[in-house]
Amino acid sequence: MSSAHPRSRTAVIYPDCDGKPIAENTLQFEWIVTIKGNLDLLFRDRPDVFIAGDLLWYPVEGSPKICTAPDAMVAFGRPKGHRPSYKQWEEGGVAPQVVFEVLSHRNRPPEMRAKLAFYERHGVQEYLIYDPQTDGLRGYQRINDELVEIPDMRDWTSPLLGIRFDCSESPMRILYPDGSPFLTLDEIAAQRDAFARERDAAERKRIAAERELNAAEQERNAAERKCIAAERELNAAERKRNTAEHERNTAIQERDQIARELESEREQAARMAAKLREMGIDI
User: What is the pTM of this model?
Assistant: First the structure.
């Protein structure tokens, strides 16, 4: 009697790394970091936009060999968060809508044609390629089932991202929807340092102004105290003047009273003398 054993399934492994470097040179790496970092800033308030750099994307479940790692990718409708890789069937079937590739001297036309075919086949809506060595920019947009090259990338605005590519200068500039440029980490640090210096200068001005205000307040208080003291002195002088005026008036009244009394006495003496004379008495 024989027994049948069920065939065990082998778990499919989806590697988190393809063994390739993120970048071949510092210039390429700086552009990758700048694009990915500024996209993070652009959509920092959107919890439903996932952005990654050099993350392996597996579009087909059960086929780990079908994968690629865009230098930067944007998936609308997917939550932010860390992932070891982007497995499309675990992301509600949502393919990254926008991908960026930053070229190095090692990229060859066959490789780039294969990437274009991959992105076209698996649902990318916008595919942007930048070569920092030559300052060359190419772009593709999905029309029906094809990624069609955009004929003129000068001053082109991404319908999905809202960012604009200004090719009037070299190197090319990527601009936010408000017109401000994507900045490198060094430029962001320099801007932060400039803001810090301006903030410190403003704080020093505030402290100096506060000191001046306090000094002015002290001077005002001192002047007010002097004014109060002067007013008191004036009131005291006024009281002295009133007292002196009163004393003068009293002295005048007393003098007039004495004068009246003397006049009355003289009149009485004259009347007395007149009577005596009438009586024949000489005095």
Answer: 0.71
Judged by phi (left if over 0) then psi (alpha if -120 to 50, else beta), residue 280 lies in: left
Task: Give the strands of the sheet with 98-102, arranged side by side.
Answer: 49-52, 72-76, 98-102, 126-131, 136-143, 146-149
On whether both 216 and 267 belong to a single domain, the answer is yes
Separation of CA 110 from chain center: 46
Burial of 183: CB neighbours in 10 Å, binned 0-12, 13-18, 19+: middle
Question: For 49-96, how does the pLDDT look when each residue is reduced to its tens digit (9 = 90+)?
Answer: 999 999 999 999 999 999 999 999 999 999 999 999 999 999 999 999
| One-letter amino acid for residue 113 of the chain | R
Show which of 182, 216, 247 is a domain's final residue.
182
Residue positions counted in the chain: 283
8-state DSSP, 282: -
Residue 246: half-sphere exposure toward Cβ, Cα within 13 Å: 6
Residues 168 and 190 in one domain: no
